[in-house]
Each structure stands twice: as structure tokens, then as C-alpha cells.
Amino acid sequence: MAVTREKIATCDPLWSALREQAESLAEREPALASFVHATVLKHDRLENALSYHLAKKIGSEDLPPMTTREIFEEAMAADPGIGDAVRADLSAVFDRDPACQAHIEALLFYKGFQALECHRIAHWLWHHDRRAMARYFQSRISEVFAVDIHPAAKMGKGIMIDHATGVVIGETAVVEDDVSIMQGVTLGGTGKESGDRHPKIRRGVLISLGAKILGNIEIGEYSRIGAGSVVLKAVPPGCTAVGIPARLTNCAAGDRPSQEMNQLIDVDQDKSG
Q1: How far apart are CA 91 and CA 83, in angstroms?
Q2: DSSP sequence for 190-252
Q3: pLDDT confidence band for 212 (50 / 70 / 90)
Q4: Could you give the percent of the chain with pLDDT greater than 90?
Q5: Average per-residue pLDDT in the chain?
Q6: In this predicted model, what pLDDT tens digit does every residue of 80-135 receive, in sequence order?
């Protein structure tokens, strides 16, 4: 077993770090030791630990955790890209959230991360002709985490959904890599239109708390959306939009807004005049 774990640590340094952090947590909080061992330390891969942990959360009388876990593991075995995205998401939370002191905290306790990884399984199911099961997972994710992401929505990797409560993402929405989304954000439609009707969020965007982005519009890469804004028109790359309805300002979004997490915007500098 020692050889196996050494190989795993060499191939997956994030998993090695998670195990070390789990051992330290179990020592510091003996009352949580059983939980930490069952969730992390008894597993040999991050995918196995994650499937166990998430299945315990969204499993129910209708779909027991053991069956739920089998579905999670089936999806992750069939699509290794899910595991890659999980690792990028974990790193995003640790790097961008000053409240997160270790990767193990995001894995065990951060519902934004947990909801996103559950969505990745629902998305896989949706595209493998198991739409009823995908819808079931969507419903459970909404009930457990207060996050509603349609199974068809396309989510990149390295995404952070901070706090997460009240986040809604519609069916034809696209969220590219390295995006940061705060609580209460909606990526929605504008009414009863059909077809491609939801926003396209390009790489590196920061969407501040409570923002609503509506319709099939593009939010350009490395742009910022201010808190509480209602965005109805496209936002060019590198720009900042704020207000109801949102307007562009002279505040440059910065080189990497989703990672800098700077939500302070000078609303007096109105680019539109």
C-alpha cells in the first residue's frame, strides 16, 4: 500500500496534499476524525473520495448514496476530464478565496465547489441519454446546495462559485475557464424564448454578487460585472459593467479579474456618458 500511495502522490500532488491536510485535520479535531477518515483517508484517489462525499450529500431514500456513488464513479471513469476540472476548481477556490486556508476545506465544506462537481456528473448524464437522472441530480443539487444549474449548461474548469446560495444558470449558458461567480448570480433568459437563449461567459470573467445577466449575450473575456447589476447587452473584453440596466464604465477590469477578485468599482466614471 505504501508503494501505491507513493505512486499516487507522485502522479497527483494535489491529492497528496489533501491527504496530508486531512491527517492534520483529524489530529486537530478528534471529533471529526471518523468523518475525515471515511471521506478522504480511506480512499486512494481524489475521484473516489469526491464520489463518496458527494453521494452522501445528495443521496436520498429515492436514490441511496451507494447507488448515487456508483453513478458518480461511472461518469468520472468514462470522462477523465471531469477529474481534471475538479482539480482546477479546487485550486481556484484555494487561490481566490482568502477565507479558504487549505484545499481540504473546499473539498469538505464549500458548497459552491460541491454543487459544481455534482453538476459535472449531471452534465455527463445529460449527454449520455440519461436525462431523467440528470434532472434528478439537478433537483437534488438545488435542494441541498441552493444552487440551480441546468444539466445542459456548459461549465469550464478552474471555476469558483463563492458562497453559492441563489446561483441560477440556464440551459444554454456557457461559462468558460477561470470564471469567478459570487452568490445570488443569475445567468438566465429574458422570457419564454426558445433555443439558444442564455449568456456566454468568456474566460476570466468576475461576476459579482447578485448580478443578473439575461439573454443570449456575450460577456467578453477578462471583464467584470458589478454587484447587483442587470446586464442585457454584450460586454466587450476587458471592460467593467455596472448598474440597472448595466452600463460600461471607465474602470478597467484588470489583467485577471476573476483571480484578483477586485469588486470595487468607481461608478462615477461612466464610459457611456
Answers
A1: 13
A2: SSS--SS-S-EE-TT-EE-TT-EEESS-EE-TT-EE-TT-EE-S-B-TT-EEETTTTEEES--
A3: very high
A4: 86
A5: 93
A6: 999 999 999 999 999 999 999 999 999 999 999 999 999 999 999 999 999 999 99
Cα-Cα-Cα-Cα torsion 80, 82, 84, 86, nearest 10 degrees, comes to: -150
Classify 72 as helix, strand or coil. helix
pLDDT over 70 percentage in the chain: 93
Report the pLDDT averaged over residues 20-45.
97
Residue carrying the nine cell digits 442585457: 232
Convert the pLDDT of each residue in 142-195 to its tens digit: 999 999 999 999 999 999 999 999 999 999 999 999 999 999 999 999 988 889
Q: How many helices (H) and strands (E) does the chain have?
A: 10, 15
Q: Using alpha carbons only, what angle is made at residue 17 by residues 75 and 50, rounded to the nearest 5 degrees?
A: 25
* DSSP states along 80-139: HHHHHHHHHHHHHHHHH-TT--SHHHHHHH-HHHHHHHHHHHHHHHHTTT-HHHHHHHHH
Per DSSP, 30 falls in state G
- Residue 206 near residue 258, CB atoms below 8 Å: yes
Distances in whole angstroms, Cα of residue 193 to Cα of each of 35, 109, 214: 46, 37, 12
Domains and CATH numbers, the chain: 1-147 (1.10.3130.10), 153-273 (2.160.10.10)
Q: What count of Cα atoms within 13 Å lies in the side-chain half-sphere of residue 137? A: 31
Give the side-chain half-sphere CA count within 13 A for 10: 6
| Residue tagged 462537481 (cell numbers) | 117
In angstroms, rounded to a whole number, what is the distance separating the alpha carbons of residues 89 and 65?
23
